[in-house]
Amino acid sequence: MRTKVLMVCLGNICRSPLAEGILQNKVDPDRVFVDSAGTGGYHIGNPPDPRSIAVAKKYGIHIEDQRCRQFGPADFSEFDLIYAMDQSNYNNIIALASSQAEIEKVKLLLDEVDRYGREVPDPYWNDNGFEEVFEMIDAACEAIAKKL
Ligand code: 4NP
C-alpha cells in the first residue's frame, strides 16, 4: 500500500502546489502518492501561480500541470497524512474532521523541521516571498521523505 500525503494551503495555487511538487521529487512514486488541495474554493481548476511555477522550475521541479482543487471531508479517508501550511489552514481542515483519528492525521508542515517557526507564510501578496517559501517547504519535505 502506498502512503498517501496531502499538502494543504488556502488557495492551492502558491504554497501547497510547491509542497506537492517538492515532496514528489524526493520520494519513490511506487511507495508514496502526493497531492495538494486548498481550503478555499477561489481558484478551482486553475494552474498554480506563475511565481510558484517559476521558483519550482528554477530548482528543476515542474508543477505547471497541477490544477487547483478544494479540500473536502473525503480527503480524511483518502489520505494518511495531511500537512497544513499555516495555523489558519490547520484550523479550517480540523473543522471538517469527524473523529479524533481524522484530526490526528493533520500536522503543520513546519513541525517537521526545527527552524523557520511553525507557519509557511502566505506569499500571495508578496512578490519576494516565493524563494523563502520554497526553502522552508523543501527543508520540511526533506525531513518527511527521510521518514516515509
Ligand atoms: P496559497 O496562497 O494559500 O499559498 O495558495 C493564496 C493564494 C490565493 C489567495 C490566498 C492565498 N486568495 O485569496 O486568492
UniProtKB/TrEMBL annotation:
GO terms for molecular function: protein tyrosine phosphatase activity. InterPro entries: LMW_PTPase, Ptyr_pPase, Ptyr_pPase_sf, Tyr_phospatase_low_mol_wt. The active site is at 9 (nucleophile), 15, 122 (proton donor). Belongs to the low molecular weight phosphotyrosine protein phosphatase family. Transmembrane segments: none annotated. Keywords: Hydrolase, Protein phosphatase. This is protein-tyrosine-phosphatase. Its EC number is 3.1.3.48. The keyword Hydrolase applies. Residues 3-147 form the Phosphotyrosine protein phosphatase I domain. PANTHER family: LOW MOLECULAR WEIGHT PHOSPHOTYROSINE PROTEIN PHOSPHATASE (PTHR11717:SF7), LOW MOLECULAR WEIGHT PROTEIN TYROSINE PHOSPHATASE (PTHR11717).
